[in-house]
Amino acid sequence: HQSAYESDNIKVLCRNPDDYVRETTRDIQRVPRNYDPTLHPFEVPREYTRALNATKLERVFAKPFVASLDGHRDGISCITKHAKSLSTVISGACDGEVKLWNLPRQECLRTVQAHEGFVRGICSRFCGTSFFTVGDDKTIKQWNLEAPGYGVREEPINTILGKAVFTGIDHHQRESTFVTCGQTVDIWDEQRSSPIRSFSWGVDSFSCVRYNPVETELLASCASDRSIVLYDTRESAPLRKVIMQLRSNTLCWNPMEAYYFTCANEDYNLYTYDIRHLDVPVTVHMDHVSAVLDVDYSPTGREFVSASFDKTIRIFPKDKGHSREVYHTKRMQHVICVRWSADNKYVLSGSDEMNIRLWKANASEKLGLLSTREKAAAHYNKKLIEKFQHHPQVRRIARHRHLPGDILKQKREQREMKEARRRREQNVRKHSKPGSVPLLTEKEKHVAAVVE
Amino acid sequence: MAADEEELSINEQAISASEDEEGSDDERKHKKLLEAISSMGSRKRKKQNERSEASVQVSEFFVNAEGTGEKVNLSDLLGTVEKTSGASNKTKKQLRNLQSSKETLELPLNKQQTEKIQRGIAYEKTAAEVSCWRNIILQNQKAEQMVFPLNQESPGPKRVEQVVAGWKVQTPLEQEIFRLLHINSQPVDDPVLTPVEEQSLKAMSLEEAKIRRAELQKARALQSYYEAKAKREKKIKSKKYHKVQRKAKCKDFLKQFDEMVKTNPEGALEELKKMELSRMEERMSLKHQNSGKWAKSKAIMAKYDDSARKAMQEQLQMNKDLTQKIVVPSDDEHESNEEGLETIPDFVNDSEPVIDSVNPWMRGQLTHEEPEVSCVTTEDVQTAEEENEEEELVGEFERKRKLRQADEEDLIPTEEEQPASEVVEEDVVEVSDKEEEDDDDDDEEEEEEDVSEFNTLFRLMRSEKTLEEDEEGLLNEGQIRVRNIEDLEVLGEFVDPQPIAEPSLPRTAAVEATSEPPYKKKREIDLKEVLTKEAKAVKVPFLPTVVDEEERDEQISIIKEAFAGDDVISDFIKDKSKLEAAGRPEVVDLTLPGWGEWGGVGLKPSRWKRKRFRIKTAPPPPRQDQKLPDVIISENRNASVASHQVSQLPFPFQNTAQFESSIRTPIGPTWNTQSVVKNMTKPKVITKMGAIIEPMVKEDFIKNKTTTPGGKGPAIMLGENKRAKEGTKRSSEKHRGRRSQKRRK
């Protein structure tokens, strides 16, 4: 606010001190700005340059690996998050050992020899006081999350002996029931030693079962007859079954969108289904070059992370066909299990070579508290990259990832194979009666049947 | 079938046997014989199990299937029905009809089939139930920003009522207590107060009341005082006094009106309407005509009496004034007013001319745009003075930017489209020119006026300009034109006035190129002369953006030296025409002599043939610099830039314009205010550090499904809930009321 006061022959410019005086000495100097566009020309080229720089910096700062937790004496078979504590993680290994980890201190809090043979599944109770494990020794064990006192033996609170091997376990979101899978899908009450409910459909065994976190009465399981079966605990029978071309290893429900789930398949792909329309998957997520072993959604439901036999983990946006990020290290072998932390910041992966690795979910994100200006700059940069994402240079830099040679080779090989298959199909179509060889989309190819 | 018949016969026999109490030996023997015969048959008869379902678990293998083969005929039933008298004719008829029809009932479905149906039903049900999330999911997908964890509670302490809400009466003691409370209509919840207490709370404090009373007293006193004064004044009988009063009022009103025109145009308009009304009344009446008694007498007196004549004239004048149509202040006036108000007109800030004079070959589009921009601002300032400053500013800049971008897009300054801008620009020229020319004449004036009071000068110049235009229109126009298209001073005097009409004339590139370039005359341009003129021209008092005079002179001399032997302008024109010629399509002559006619030395192909086989290719799209005689825009693909350009339209966009506009809007803090930047760069997902993001909870999002039926709700309700309930009650009452009214009608 500038105003000129005129007297007879003296003119004085006076300014409001509020415009240039800082409120505190720690405040930054106030810079009066004139937003007249003629004073700031070339906005698009300037922003483009900024976007390019932001993209480059993003790649420069992309250091996703945070820590490795070692201590297991066999491959990690399962990981689970603590229901109430962000810093606690429970992992089970192939030698039946279960370890509790403190993430910020990167140390093992407790070790329990839970089972003989593999620990097949772990789940934490919703209240965060205990957790359940299932193993190859046909038992379900409930453990206290608090360590026993000095000199007291580690003993489960509760042990249930089953008739067959259990391969997976999951706990209800709010009630004291849990579900296991093996030869059948059983629903258990915590207070009882026999299942309150058993579902089976056909004679095949199941490899994974998960409660829907939103519609808490819904269940989905992966069976070894290449099928995914849906259940509703309120109904007497299973709901529906989708049979795919190859077996699904695990599945995960979207925690924010009740009717979507994603399954990790043996055919290197992941498939997102809408349970209302099971005949065609909503999205096929391709990029892995070997069987996908585990999948977990981010708590925001926007993305999911997948672990693969090809020694990488990938992060996919839930509605995109290709991954936005791939993580790998030289020493990481086949990744067996993966989890996304409950604060949407980290990803945990457990692999064959006995290590649990902690990754950042956003590779170039700065950790810790950010000042307001840092935050604003980060947001601006992100928006710039998004704005200019279609420009070839920005895209080229933003999409560049390093991949180990063998994976790259495999990828090329598979591309070739796919191309060959496509060509062959085309030829068959050319030489057969029109309409007899239908043109199938990628989504339609992988579903063998939907059984009612 | 045969076996069945046998069985039947056996049964009949059995029945007959049982009926016959005596039962002779012969018959028994006969039966045995029959059994023996039947047992000799190829099929071995099974031992029939007894049907007993007493136990809970019934195996399907133990269920007796006796009589499966038998069919109960309707005739058996009908026989008895016919006999009973109680059965109605209708049923009998129906049964008879049934008997005639041959269809049999279907067997119950097997287990697989039933399970399949069950599954199907269950699936449909679940799918329908899950679909209730659809809206929420879609909404979240479209949301510009999501904040996780969802349903965050507001920080800070909660009210007791909030904590207690949801608590249900459980034990009998509690039930009893609540029953008692409800009976006595004691408030249980929210502000735990009785209605009386509430009212007392609502009442004012003592101090407030005192203040309010004092205010009221004062107002009343003032009112009575004014009333008294008005009465007193009304009682005054002096006509002169009233006349003076009226005149003063009138003057006052006029003054107010003038101000109002500036500050409150709407109010002024209303006043104007009132004035119009009074004018109409005046016209209708003969009040101030000289037809009244007084007027007539005065007319007689006027011959001799000066004062009477004056009075007459005054009255006539009044009539004239009143009947005169009120002229609405025009826009021009406004503009000039505005300009007058401003301390310094915008174009003064223009450093462009100076730059141009120094380096006339560098002409950016900006020179052209700036004046236009300034014009826009003045208009805007007029309309939106009282509006919020910052928002207004931002909006204004946005508009400016758009204007500029639009210009950049066409790169063709169409003069017809921007008359306003032209006017202002003309003014600039005029001012500078006149100053140099009329320096001597206006010396005195300039001395009188303060140098910084540029505005008055400006206005003066403007009025003079209009005069001068008539005198030396051609030259002026030429100047204007030049300035419009190029650096005003450089080519100013030498360019023909014709090009002024250029945009209106439908001139194509080809025509321009083929016709003898009008710039040939310009070869005579002496740069020195032009530049010296330039230096003189800029005498306008500039703001600090102006370069020092010495510096400028220096630069000019440097440029003069550098381009001493060159005729830059003609070179430029040559280059341009060359480029244009290169871009023009060539005519391909495909005529072959001898085909269809005689050929040989001295023979030319016929005209029709030449006409037919001379192929003209379609002209390329017009050059971008077609209408810019002093600009060359290269339309070649620039390889170094191409790698940075988007070659295909990216997916979500439907046309290039959409995409370009998305790129064009800057989002950075250099171009936008802080709040705008904050809004534009807000991230899509916000998470709270260290907070666990729980999955959605159905109860929070889908309410109607989970609300418990009446009676089982919480014993203590939140105030809001209660209010909502009351609201619904009220509305329902209203509805009822309406309905009853309707009925009454």
TrEMBL record, chain A:
Q: Which GO terms describe its molecular function?
A: ubiquitin-like ligase-substrate adaptor activity
Keywords assigned: Nucleus, Repeat, Ribonucleoprotein, Ribosome biogenesis, rRNA processing, Ubl conjugation pathway, WD repeat
Record's compositionally biased regions (Basic and acidic residues):
408-419, 441-452
Which range is the signal sequence, renumbered to this chain? Answer: none
Kindly state a single biological-process term from the GO annotations of this entry.
female gamete generation
Q: Which residues form the Sof1-like protein domain?
A: 361-447
Kindly state one GO CC term assigned in the UniProt record. Answer: Cul4-RING E3 ubiquitin ligase complex
Predominantly, its location class is nucleus
Question: Which locations, inside or outside the cell, does it occupy?
Answer: Nucleus, Nucleolus
Report if keyword S-adenosyl-L-methionine is assigned: no
Q: Which family does it belong to?
A: Belongs to the WD repeat DCAF13/WDSOF1 family.
Q: Please state what the protein is called.
A: DDB1- and CUL4-associated factor 13
Native source organism of the sequence? Sinocyclocheilus rhinocerous
Q: From which lineage does this chain's organism come? A: Eukaryota, Metazoa, Chordata, Craniata, Vertebrata
UniProtKB/TrEMBL annotation, chain B:
Q: Where is region (Disordered) located? A: 1-56, 366-474, 499-518, 703-745
Where does this chain mainly localize? Answer: nucleus
Q: Does the keyword Transmembrane apply?
A: no
Which spans does this entry mark as compositional bias, Basic and acidic residues? Answer: 720-731
Q: Where is the sequence biased in composition, kind Acidic residues?
A: 382-395, 407-452
Any one GO CC term of this protein is: small-subunit processome
Q: What ranges does the record list as Basic residues composition bias?
A: 732-745
Q: Which domain of life is it from?
A: Eukaryota
Example GO biological process term?
Answer: rRNA processing
Subcellular location per the Swiss-Prot or TrEMBL entry: Nucleus, Nucleolus
Endoplasmic reticulum as a keyword of this entry, yes or no, is no
Q: Which UniProt keywords apply?
A: Nucleus, Phosphoprotein
Family (UniProt): Belongs to the UTP14 family.
Q: Protein name, please?
A: U3 small nucleolar RNA-associated protein 14 homolog A-like
